[in-house]
């Protein structure tokens, strides 16, 4: 159960990151964050009303509020980094944030078995290799690396916070809704400040209505990934769930290869294979 939902998280996040990275190449990153998260919040609001999720309101929702504050910062930094550097190189750097939930799991007393430790090591190595290192490809700017590292630890913090925000399915819908509302509020405030300072809120041609389905996909895939991660973390060790969920850069790199024709080098193919081996070790450990 843990492995299945954590891998679903990787798939959803990988595709959401790919879509978000593409969108920020023609739409301001803050606008992508605000619009995509607003769509997700609207859908979640309907689900919360339909399931009676308001009855699950309690002190745990403060974890969702905190995740909602951290999330837009991480997303903004990551989307900007994806727009600056090759996706296949930038995306794997985001996995260093897995240290946060893994550290939390170890702190609360989780002790992975020998097979799982080996799986963690192999999977993380595979994810890093899956993104390069590209010694001859397009250079990754220092700004992109810094933005990615900030995003990585932000994502790791969101991992840890959202896993504590609920204990039931209806409570999970409410927690994700609260997180998204805070995302939109924080992102909207940042967008307002950016516009006041002369930044652009929209591309030259106005609101990109043709990109609305893509924006909706990014927002809904991101929130679905949060949900599957919480389920994974609640049904097994957080250390295992977090590492398996962090395989999303492999999905992003493969999507970039298949759609953008970014060259997949031998070391990247080997990395994808190692990530798969690590996944199997974790799932059977």
TrEMBL record:
Q: What name has this protein been given in UniProt? A: EamA domain-containing protein
Query: InterPro entries from the entry?
Result: EamA_dom, EmrE-like
| The family this protein is said to belong to | Belongs to the EamA transporter family.
**Is this entry keyworded Transcription?**
no
Organism annotation: Streptomyces regalis
Q: Where are the transmembrane segments?
A: 26-49, 61-82, 113-132, 144-163, 169-193, 214-232, 238-259, 266-284
Provide a GO CC annotation, any one: membrane
UniProtKB keywords: Membrane, Transmembrane, Transmembrane helix
Identify the residues that the record assigns to the EamA domain, covering every copy: 3-130, 144-283
Keyword Transmembrane helix assigned to the entry: answer is yes
């Amino acid at each position: 159960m843990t492995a299945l939902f954590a891998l679903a998280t990787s798939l959803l996040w990988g595709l959401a990151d790919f879509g978000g990275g593409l969108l920020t190449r023609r739409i301001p990153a803050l606008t992508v964050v605000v619009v995509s998260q607003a769509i997700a919040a609207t859908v979640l609001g309907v689900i919360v009303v339909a399931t009676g999720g308001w009855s699950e309101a309690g002190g745990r929702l403060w974890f969702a509020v905190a995740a909602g504050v951290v999330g837009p910062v991480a997303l903004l930094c990551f989307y900007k980094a994806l727009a600056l550097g090759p996706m296949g190189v930038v995306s794997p750097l985001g996995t260093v944030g897995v240290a946060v939930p893994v550290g939390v799991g170890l702190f609360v007393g989780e002790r992975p078995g020998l097979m799982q430790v080996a799986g963690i090591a192999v999977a993380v190595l595979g994810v890093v290799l899956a993104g390069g290192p590209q010694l001859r490809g397009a250079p990754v700017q220092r700004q992109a690396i810094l933005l990615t590292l900030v995003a990585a630890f932000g994502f790791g913090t969101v991992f840890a916070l959202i896993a504590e925000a609920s204990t039931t399915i209806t409570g999970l819908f409410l927690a994700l809704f609260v997180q998204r509302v805070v995302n939109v509020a924080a992102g909207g405030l940042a967008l307002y400040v950016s516009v006041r300072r002369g930044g652009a809120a929209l591309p030259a041609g106005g609101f990109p209505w043709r990109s609305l389905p893509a924006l909706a996909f990014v927002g809904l895939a991101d929130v679905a990934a949060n949900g599957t991660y919480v389920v994974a973390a609640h049904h097994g060790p957080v250390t295992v769930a977090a590492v398996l969920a962090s395989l999303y850069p492999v999905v992003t790199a493969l999507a970039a290869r298949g759609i953008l024709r970014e060259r997949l080098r031998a070391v990247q193919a080997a990395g994808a294979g190692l990530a798969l081996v690590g996944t199997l070790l974790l799932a059977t450990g």
